[in-house]
Amino acid sequence: MGGGKRCATVLHTAVVVGATLVSMDARGQLQSFERLVMPGPVIAGHAEYEGECASCHVRFERQQQRDLCLDCHTEIAEDLRTGTGYHSLSAEAREGSCGSCHADHEGRDADIVGLDVATFDHGLTDFALRDSHVDVICEDCHVTDAPFHDAEAECVGCHRDDDQHQGNLGEACADCHAETTWSDAHYDHELESGYALTGAHARLVCVSCHVGEHYVDTPDQCIDCHRDDDTHMGTNGPECRDCHATTDWAETLFDHFTRTGFALTGGHSSLMCESCHFGNKLEQKLEAECVACHSEDDAHAGINGAECADCHRATEWLDVTFDHARDAEFALNGAHAALECMACHLQPVAVSLPATECVGCHLEDDPHEMQLGEDCGSCHAELTWTDDLRFDHDLTRFPLLGKHAEVICEDCHETRAFHDTAERCIDCHEEDDVHTARLGADCALCHTPLDWGLWRFDHDAQTDFPLDGAHAGLDCHACHREPVAAARISLPGTCVSCHRSEDVHRGQFGDECEQCHTTESFDVLRTLR
User: Which end of the chain is more exposed for a tag (fewer CB within 10 A), N or C?
Assistant: First the structure.
């Protein structure tokens, strides 16, 4: 049923068409037929050609329709001819028919372009999206309702407002800038301008030299840009590069030794030119001797002569090369090592010192008043006068024994004139003498240096009067009541010399008490025979 109905419809159409053709001439008949079979209205852009099918179609020659499209769309034809643009770079667009992508007769408002911006490969155009352009949205470059083909392909088309050079460098931005970022510039300044940007110049921004974005006839001499930086104030001329490098003003290429014969070493290497040179430095000639610049720095006040380099290095004044032991045959040891030259050299070095012995410098410092001779080194070291003494008192006439070894020098020696010191015990211990001189001045007869309480006098052995009986416990002063005149104590050895007042016999039996009495007691009598 359905098939019979379709056959009837076709037959009916053929009859109608046939009837129509019979009533019209050949050309008109064909056009009317084409309008009758047209699939639908064309887009608004093609509306003016809708009545003329031949404008876009060649009867029975579908492959020739492409040529008719290109006859109108000349910009596409030019792309295909020159091998540029999407229709040339895309194999599908280059080799296929236009209708395979752009189907018309779908209404006035139909989108026959059919562009899917989400999947479109921009690499098939003359402007591949790279680096920063990848993140750009279509509307940033393509104007709404304008053909995509009309979008600007040159940088300046989109970035004219970003051009800090204000058009002074032309419109070929890509000659210098990359698509990653504006600051990623690859302009070869040396190749393009003949002026290499080296050292500190490589870090400069363009406007540092090209003020106001002016790039024509830019000066290329150092002084043109650095006149205000010229600390020499023009006295060294305009050829800055003869001395300075582009890395830094302080880095100079001027070889002072080659140019002047005076090497700038040590402390001289860090000096500014003005430290020595005044006025026109290139023409001014200076003396090369140290004193020419350092006469006011001479702490020796000229005493050591003018040949500073004989002792000092150029690194620092205190870095001296003079070896006193080698050059003066007098080693500076101990406290001498820290002395200033002028401590000993009060006269110019041409005037020799009186002697290298201690007394040559220290005669006025000798507290011994020359009693100990001139050989100070026999007792004193060079570190200090008072420390590390090598004097051995035991080698003198008064060795320090017992308690004497513990006393300090000042206890016996009131001054350093040691030979003026008395040697007798009583001279130091007179106030300690409990005998008040009654036993003489020769304390050593009884006492030892170990202790006053340890005495060694043996009355029985050292005198003719042994102390026995009641005499054994007597105090010395019981018999020795008056000072003795001689070192050897001499008293009468008779009993009556001490006991006359106790003689109850009143001398009737003579002076020989021991004939009857013993030393134990007066009351004990000897047995008479």
Answer: C
Beta carbons of 108 and 43 less than 8 angstroms apart: yes
Each residue's pLDDT tens digit in the chain (529 positions)? 333 333 343 334 443 444 444 444 544 554 555 566 678 899 998 999 888 888 888 877 877 888 899 999 999 999 999 999 999 999 988 888 888 888 889 899 998 888 888 889 998 998 999 899 998 988 888 888 888 888 888 888 888 888 888 888 888 888 888 888 887 878 888 888 889 999 889 888 888 888 888 888 888 888 888 888 888 888 888 888 888 888 888 787 888 888 888 888 888 888 887 788 877 666 777 888 888 888 888 878 788 888 888 888 888 777 788 888 888 888 888 888 888 887 888 777 777 776 677 877 888 878 887 878 778 888 888 888 777 778 888 888 889 888 888 888 888 888 888 888 888 888 888 888 888 888 888 888 888 888 887 888 888 888 888 988 889 888 888 888 777 665 455 778 888 888 888 888 888 888 888 888 888 888 888 776 5
**Class of residue 39 by CB neighbours under 10 A (exposed 0-12, middle 13-18, buried 19+):** exposed
DSSP conformation class of 364: G
CA–CA gap between residue 104 and residue 73 (Å, rounded):
15
End-to-end CA distance of the chain, in Å?
Answer: 205
Q: How many CB atoms lie within 10 A of CB 520?
A: 11
Greatest CA separation for the chain? 220
What b/e readout covers 163-190, taking b as 16+ CB neighbours within 10 angstroms? beeeeebeeebeebbebeebeeeeeebe
Q: How far apart are CA 255 and CA 243, in angstroms?
A: 8
- Non-local (6+) Cβ contacts of 128 within 8 A are 122
- The C-alpha atoms of residue 10 and residue 221 are separated, in whole angstroms, by 93
Q: Are residues 18 and 33 in contact, defined by beta-carbon separation less than 8 angstroms? A: no
Give the distance, in angstroms, between the CA of residue 121 and the centroid of all CA atoms in the same chain. 57
Query: Helix 74-82 crosses helix 65-72 at what angle (to 10 degrees)?
Result: 110
Q: Quick one: tokens of 153? A: 């392909």
Q: CA separation (Å) from 291 to 122, 286, 343, 450?
A: 80, 12, 22, 68
Token couple for 8 = 């009837």
Q: Could you give phi then psi for residue 16, rounded to 5 degrees?
A: -65, -45
**Three-state DSSP state, 452:** strand
E strand or H helix at 447, and its extent? Answer: strand 447-448
Q: For the chain, what's the residue count?
A: 529
DSSP conformational letter for 244: B
Q: Rounded to an integer, what distance in angstroms lies between the CA atom of residue 41 and that of residue 164?
A: 51
Distance CA 64, CA 67 (A): 6
Phi, psi of 324 (to 5 degrees): -65, -35
Gyration radius of the chain's alpha carbons: 66
